[in-house]
Amino acid sequence: MKKYLLLICFMALVQVAFATDRHEFPVKTEMAVMKDSVVIEFGKAGKVVIIVESKEDFDKLKLMNINQIISELDLEENKETGELTIVEIRKKDGTVKEVVKVYEDTNQTEVNVAGMRLYVDESGENTRVKFETGAKKKQDPPFRTFFNIDLGVNNFLDADGKFPTSDQPYSVKGWGSWNVGLNWMAAQRISKGFYWDFGIGFQFYNFKFENRDYQAVRGEEMIDFIQRSDVDGFKSKLSSSYLTAMTMFELDFGKMNDNGRRGLRIAAGPYVGYRLGGQSKYVFRELEGSGRRKDKEDTGLYLENLRYGIRGELGVGRIKFFTTYDLNNLFQDGKGPELNPITFGIVF
């Protein structure tokens, strides 16, 4: 029953396909010897024409059923993919355009005609037939470029792999310790759902200290955290900026399963950056009640010029999260506490 259904659908699809693509493939007509023909009409405009050249051929045709006719076509099947090319058009330049393809499994059959897809599933109790035009399907480009923005919060991990406690002068306050990244990225498709992402960007780090009475200043040999008891502190922070290059390998399970953006996406890879600047900022007011004043000091002298680490991303739908961890210390050896920056945020 499925073969008869597919044959009818196939003939209808071919009729539609050639009707829509008729302008692309002009037909050249020539005078030919008149031959006998058998015309099978179906639907409103569907038609199959079988031409026979002799009475013997016509007698043989009368003895054949529809399955024998299909088998007599002697179509070649691709053993690796299971695809069967039924109709192809050879252009004058020698290129070939495959118009009709058939893929048949145990309980599933798929017919592709000029961008249209007919799918028959007999694996369940009831036979399901699905028809797709393919016009709305977006092609996944092999290479693309894009721009994104990172927005996250920063913190440190000390030599023991823990976040600094509140009694440490450099313990970080989450709200206000922002990380902003501007990234120009490119993605190279390696296989279906598997990509190589790489790019370059600018990262701006702010570490807002939880204890606003401490100020980071440049000492003679290292950075010092001094307690300001002579003023009323409002804000104390340390900032740095980097030019960063990164690369990641990404797995998009949604595209692997033809679900588009509805699947899970994971990516991970290394990055390396070069420091562009660094300073400390302290906002305070005199004890006598003066207005707010700002004290900025260049502390980049004791910051590591080169940063490197691991970046990971997790995407669900249109939302993507990221985290970065610097494998190197924020400060140079012996110039400050052993602190490794870590960031959590979202990608826009």
Task: Give the helices and strands, then pairings.
Blueprint: H1 2-20, E1 36-42, E2 46-52, H2 55-62, H3 66-72, E3 83-90, E4 96-104, E5 108-113, E6 116-121, E7 128-132, E8 143-157, E9 178-191, E10 194-208, E11 214-218, E12 223-227, E13 231-252, H4 253-256, E14 264-286, E15 292-298, E16 306-316, E17 319-326, E18 340-347
Antiparallel strand pairs: 1-2, 3-4, 4-5, 5-6, 6-7, 8-9, 8-18, 9-10, 10-13, 11-12, 13-14, 14-15, 14-16, 16-17, 17-18
CATH topological fold name of the largest domain: Porin
Q: In CATH, what is the class of the largest domain?
A: Mainly Beta
How many helices? The count is 4
- Give the total of beta strands: 18
Residue share in helix? 10-25%
- What low-confidence regions span 5 or more consecutive residues with pLDDT below 50? 20-34
Question: What CATH architecture label of the largest domain applies?
Answer: Beta Barrel
Structural class: mainly beta
Overall geometric form: rod-shaped
Main sheet strand line-up: 8-9-10-13-14-16-17-18
Distance between the termini: 52 Å
Radius of gyration: 35 Å
| Share of β-strand residues | over 45%
What characterizes the major β-sheet? Answer: 8 strands, antiparallel, barrel
What is the helix/strand order?
Answer: HEEHHEEEEEEEEEEEHEEEEE
**Integer count of domains:** 2
